[in-house]
Amino acid sequence: MSNTFAELYSPLLKEVFTVQAQQQLAQGADGLTCALAYAEHGKPEFTLAYLLLIDLSEEEKRELLALSYERRAILSEEKAETLSQQFRRPFPLIKLEAQKDRVAANQVRQGRRVRRDSKILRVN
């Protein structure tokens, strides 16, 4: 039996994001609208907080969370490019984080737990 969306992804979420989402919903905000807006801004933590609180199919929740990770990857790559041009040097760690976000998006789409392993980068 496969794990539910909440079982797979709620461990990724810090309480502060859930509290913020609960407050917004209590004030009458539409959870799906908020989740979509945060996904568009590349904010998977906020997107996840709303997705855990609203009634939506598991597949739709996975797709929206994956889109949020992908959007953050795009925004990170754009930021790395802007900084590279501004400071005339590469920003490989920003690009590495973007790659991790793309992997996370794929893991979410496949219904797998997101692995955010941190590996030590060796510099010689």
Concise structural overview:
The protein is mainly α and 124 residues long.
DSSP, total strands = 0
Low-pLDDT runs of 5+ residues are 120-124
What is the succession of H and E elements?
A: HHHHHH
Oligomeric form: single chain
| Class by SSE composition | mainly alpha
Report the biggest beta sheet as strand number plus sense, adding barrel if it closes: none
Q: Helical segment tally?
A: 6
**Overall domain count:** 1
Write the layout of secondary structure elements.
Blueprint: H1 5-9, H2 15-26, H3 31-40, H4 44-53, H5 58-87, H6 92-109
Please tell me about this protein's structure.
The protein is mainly alpha-helical. It has one domain (5-109). The protein contains six helices and no strands. The chain has helices at residues 5-9, 15-26, 31-40, 44-53, 58-87, 92-109. The longest helix is centred in the middle third of the chain and has 30 residues, at 58-87. It is globular, with a radius of gyration of 16 Å. The model is unreliable at 120-124 (pLDDT under 50).
Kindly list the characteristics that best describe this protein.
6 helices; 124 residues; mainly alpha
